[in-house]
Amino acid sequence: MQDQSGEMKERLKEPVPQENTPSPNRDEENLPAVLQKDMKNDAAAQTTDMQTTVEEEREDPKMGDGEKVVLHDIMHDNQNEKEISTSSGDNVDGILKILTLDGSMEKTNCPEQNRSKTENRKEMLQASDADTSKSPDECWDDYIVTTGNPLLSNSQTFLKIDEQHDAQTGWHFPVGPGLAQEVFCPQWSFPAASYYTTVEPTVPFEVMWRVWEDVDADSESVLTPITIKTASLDFTVMSYNILAQDLLELNQHLYAHCPLEVLQWSYRCNLLLKEIEKWAPDILCLQEVQENHYHEHLHPVLSQRGYICVYQRRTGTKTDGCAVCYQSSRFAEAAVSKLEFFRPETGLLDRHNVGVVLLLRPLVTTEAEVKEAGPPLCVANTHLLFNPRRGDVKLAQLAIMLAEIDAVIKSCKARGEHCNVVFCGDFNSIPHLPLYQFITTGELSYQRMPTWMVSGQEDLSYKPSYHRLFAPLWPSSLGISDTCQYTTDINKTRSQNSGTRGYSHEFMLQLRFCPAACVRPENLVLIPGVTDIKPDTSEDAQSYEKRFRDCLKHQVDLESVYKHVLPGSGFPEVTTLHSEGGTTVDYIFYSPKRPLTKKQRAYKTSGGKGLKLVGSLSLLSEDLLWSLNGLPNHIFPSDHLSLVARFQLELDDA
């Protein structure tokens, strides 16, 4: 030990060049003591600084892990240097080894220089600490998380955004070890450039609940090829029960499911006129048209749109009726008949229903001139009795309509013209039951048939007894045979009112039950079977009973536009719906174009007579209508759906 101490003293006596010493002739004996004192002061200062830094590190949890490692290494290296300097005498010649932040060794030759290096390191660490201890607003307001949910991942990726987004409002989320840090997430905004193409706004989206269906040419009957081109006229027919407001208010229980606003007439009338304008029919047949609404709202608007209207109100106390309107630019009126079904003298027809029959002629424009062109078109519109139990009354009312249509057809046939027919209305009868079969097949065997079965609106078979039909259905005083034809020439009967006779036959029949007719004159000659009180056994009465058998027939060839089953699904079509259910009671019947006969083919006739169905507006199922909250609603203004069909009429060659 004495040898080592002596050797140390020998080495300390050797001169060491000092750059910062003011005088090179400093006392060599005092140099080791001064140097050791400075080194001890420097080491104590460094130890104090490192401890202060460690305490600050513990107090500041925001300091990065990398900075903690550097501080730990610096403290460890300085402690080692201190031990080496005091034990092994490595500080000979005043040279000290300092571990820099970048891991390299730096030498210094004086305590003042060593102290300056230590102060530099402290300043660097303080600057780094100041950077990492910035407030969350200063640190995160300029960044946005792009690697997912910040609450689920400790490793975050941030993307610098423009300063213009600094003012955005957003949310602050804790992140990092122990959730000690905080990140600011602004509101999400889509970038200017997107993977998806920008869709420009077009017309407002509208659901088409009802679509137009064209008739498939392959499904039609095969006709003989037309060898001669003929001119044709396409026209559209609409049949619509628009629900009279008076009837709606009398039967409010049927519309308890409807919002109050859709039951107001002003709201329904607006939708009704829009629907008519949308489909723009050339011929419009309306039922349940309230008289005051017709004159105040419907007729003025329809007249402005070019329609000519014919209206017939129901007899009795009811305020609604039927109307037929046609475009004056497409058709000209040739004849009109307004029918009333109230015939009290018959004892059967005691209900106040009506019908309208028009004879129209198509108009064509040739060389700036409008001319009438054939063949004529008979348009009929009616609303039969609703009562499901009175099938006998419905058949009698229908017979009056068919007799009038037959008379119009005969009048055209007398002039050598073929008359096509379009028969519209609310028939209050469901498809494929007796009344419907009678219209489409032209024949009905009704003997002992229950009256409720005629229309099929209600099944009353559970009742022990019910009314049945027996021949004849109506008395001869109605003037209509069982073939639904007038028994006398209706034109002659009408002309008799202004002819040589003072009174018509129909007028005299109405007087047969008056009180004066029941008083027997005093001088009346007694003639058996004529002036006595015995039943009439004349041949005419017996012949009528024989003619009126248990079968009804008519001569008008009619077919329904709709097939009453939705294609694809097989669900039944519905034309009316209220709280008690939905069914089909509205129809458009027409005289179809039939295949050519052999005789017509032999004469190379261009085509069969009749109308060709081009297309129709689809109907809906009951389930779909209930999904729209039933009828009426915000789309359909009535408890009935409109029926629309388009026909093609071949014009005469002339």
UniProtKB/TrEMBL annotation:
Ranges of biased composition (kind: Low complexity): 42-53
Residue ranges for the region (Disordered) are 1-65, 106-136
Q: Which GO terms describe its molecular function?
A: 3'-5'-RNA exonuclease activity
Q: Which domain of life is it from?
A: Eukaryota
Query: Which residue ranges does UniProt annotate as crossing the membrane?
Result: none
Q: Where is the composition biased (Basic and acidic residues)?
A: 1-16, 114-124
One matching Pfam family is: Exo_endo_phos
Q: Endonuclease/exonuclease/phosphatase domain: from which residue to which, for each copy?
A: 238-640
* Protein name as catalogued: Angel homolog 1
| Species this protein is from | Poecilia formosa (Amazon molly)
